């Protein structure tokens, strides 16, 4: 069975000892690992949390975004240089956490739009930054798993077809892709086709309900998703990404204005749901 993870963004985007009881309880539920958001400036905390998580026997993945002043698809050479430095910093913090996968939509600035569809030069600029980031990540044995987002959060990569194009342009073995069931529910025609498209470079999966609450409680076509993953023989993390208003600053930044489910309801019921779906689909 594939490893099952949980993203602690359901509680906090911070990095401190306050995460320890959450990590311990996720371990008791049965999770194989946890996913952390890399953004907090407290560098020492990353090693502290990483050591704690490692000592519990849990694996780690990480996720991040970049801001408009660190945008890999900016027309400005200086801004693109800042984007690479930022991604390198995130790779360093991911290494401190003992992560081997850094995922997220850091191919472009999150929720930052131009008055046009994605341009060829924007793909080229992003690919150039990502290739250099892949070179840096390889030294830390970290895979960069790029994420396609829905049209309300991103315009460079909304679909697996666009994401596949970008990964090919980046042309580095440490630059790969991830699949998120929430975004795919908005942007893809069919899950099986989307997964077949990204299969050659797929390294990570987010299990996320249509409302970002407990997986299995909404209308995501879960049988299609898990059957599609089984069809491509996916072997990797199945990590729940769900959100709440526990961290108001982060919630405000991503447009989370209400509670979907209690985070522990999501963690406990989501774990059981993934196990059941993996058994059902021989994943």
TrEMBL record:
InterPro entries hit by this protein: IolE/XylAMocC-like, Xyl_isomerase-like_sf, Xyl_isomerase-like_TIM-brl
Segments passing through the bilayer: none
Keywords per UniProt: Isomerase
Keyword Isomerase: yes
GO MF entry, a single one: isomerase activity
Keyword Cytoplasm annotated: no
Xylose isomerase-like TIM barrel domain: residues covered: 24-253
Record-given protein name: Xylose isomerase domain-containing protein TIM barrel
């Amino acid at each position: 069975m594939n490893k099952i993870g949980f993203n602690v963004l359901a509680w906090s985007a911070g990095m401190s000892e306050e995460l320890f009881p959450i990590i311990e309880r996720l371990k008791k539920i049965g999770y194989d690992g946890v996913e952390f958001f890399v953004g907090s400036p407290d560098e020492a905390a990353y090693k502290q949390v990483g050591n704690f998580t490692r000592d519990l026997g849990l694996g780690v993945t990480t996720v991040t975004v970049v801001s408009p002043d660190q945008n890999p698809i900016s027309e400005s050479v200086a801004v693109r240089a800042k984007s690479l430095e930022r991604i390198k910093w995130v790779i360093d913090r991911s290494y401190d956490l003992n992560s081997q996968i850094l995922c997220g939509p850091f191919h472009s600035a999150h929720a930052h739009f131009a008055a046009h569809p994605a341009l060829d030069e924007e793909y080229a600029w992003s690919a150039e930054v990502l290739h250099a980031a892949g070179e840096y990540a390889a030294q830390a044995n970290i895979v960069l798993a790029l994420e396609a987002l829905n049209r309300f959060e991103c315009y460079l990569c909304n679909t697996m077809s666009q994401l596949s194009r970008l990964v090919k342009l980046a042309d580095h073995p440490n630059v790969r892709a991830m699949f998120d069931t929430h975004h795919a529910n908005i942007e893809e025609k069919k899950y099986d086709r989307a997964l077949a498209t990204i299969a050659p470079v797929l390294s990570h999966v987010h299990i996320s309900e249509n409302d970002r609450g407990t997986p299995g409680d909404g209308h995501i076509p879960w049988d299609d998703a898990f059957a599609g993953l089984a069809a491509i023989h996916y072997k990797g993390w199945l990590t729940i990404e769900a959100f709440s208003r526990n961290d108001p600053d982060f919630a405000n930044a991503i447009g989370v204005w209400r509670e979907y489910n209690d985070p522990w309801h999501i963690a406990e019921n989501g774990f059981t749901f993934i196990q059941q779906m993996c058994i059902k689909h021989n994943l």
